[in-house]
Amino acid sequence: MMNKILIVFVFLVFFSEISAQTVSESDVLGSWKVERVNQAPSNSDFASVLDEFKKATFTFHKTGKFGFSTTSDANEFLGLIDMFENTQWKFEKNNQLIRIGGDEDEYSILGIYVERSNGALNFHIDESGLKFVMTEAE
Length: 138
Fold this sequence. Notes:
Elements: H1 2-19, H2 25-28, E1 30-39, H3 46-53, E2 56-60, E3 66-70, H4 75-84, E4 88-92, E5 97-101, E6 110-117, E7 120-125, E8 130-136
Antiparallel strand pairs: 1-2, 1-8, 2-3, 4-5, 5-6, 6-7, 7-8
């Protein structure tokens, strides 16, 4: 019985290491677009917002500067551009967390948990219930 439990435990640990790999800061560098939404709140108000996120690009510069751009003309997204103007980003490797902001707000404007699963980079927008599969922007 103990051997079966041990085998199952080893299998689960091994599988979790394969399916969700650790991301490094260099993996995040560059520009990223939403390829598809993996998880979203069931609230119907989010449907239009999700379409708008697919028009957005998140850019993580090597210098620490963060950029957010969009082809959307929705007021909410134009407001995000203003909110992210002159912001920086930093990566917390232990938490697999990108923190966006600056020293004055302790990088608290936005948190993005990052994971690599099945070869794709995934962004989980902190406290939103939104999870995106990302693709590198051209």
